[in-house]
Amino acid sequence: MSRFEEDARLAVEAARWAPSPFGRRPWRFRIGDRRIGVRADAGRALDVADPQGREMLIGCGAALHTLALTLRHLGHAPRVRLLPDPDLPFLLADIDVPEGGGDPGEETERLYEQVEPRHGDRGVFRPDPVPAGLPATLREEAGREGVTLRAVTEPRDRDALGALAGAADHLEPYVPGRDPARSRGWGLPEVWGRPGTGLVVLLTTPEDSPAAWLGTGLALQRVLLRARAEGASAAFHTHVLELPELRELIRVRLCGGRFPQVLLRLGLLDPEQVPPRRPADALVQEDY
């Protein structure tokens, strides 16, 4: 096995730690001649909760960012081409890895160190606020992928989102393995108003398309790793956006017409619990 093949498999291993709906890891990789193909694994899609595949592609984008970051950590200079073939809609990206590379740098190393420890928390944050400069930093990270990050600081807007999250808890049945933050009382406005709520964040895009969903995943993992590097963890509330009526209401009333793709809260951690991940061998496909 060549050094590239060894490093490619290490990158696939690291991609297991990217967030995805229900922790299903709906992606597959094909390792070729100094190239890695990233495909959506439609067999692991959620036909009821995610009929369009929006959350599936967001998860794939997060895995793609993790893969590229790990390759840079290993001394490579990956070149990512998104949606390279319109005739192959499930082929999301090709990553070319030319020979050579260089020192990954301190910033790459710092972010790579967050890949495995980062995971969705159950939302029981300490009452301490996140660092003052964190929202601006995360806004810049999301913007690199063409995604807007809005920190929801107005109490009325925050409480409205909390009420909608609580409504979604009642309108959709609880399914084990989905959003860790739901069914713990964190969707209720009286709880969201307490100090342990953390920072409420929306990721939005001007369009609602596969390219936008994939870009959201890239931005999401940038945001999560940067937040983790600053000591913050995330609690997801994606179930709110799975209900078309609630998502449309949030788009019109709270996002200025932009499409909400991710709703989460960021806060400082208490002791963590790490969820299971699919083994790396299950994510590598020998041929398409």
Automatic annotation (TrEMBL):
The family database entries (Gene3D superfamilies) matched by this protein are listed as: NADH Oxidase (3.40.109.10)
According to UniProt, the name of this protein is Nitroreductase family protein
Taxonomic lineage of this organism?
A: Bacteria, Bacillati, Actinomycetota, Actinomycetes, Streptosporangiales
> Where does the source fall among the domains of life?
Bacteria
In alphabetical order, the GO MF annotations are: oxidoreductase activity
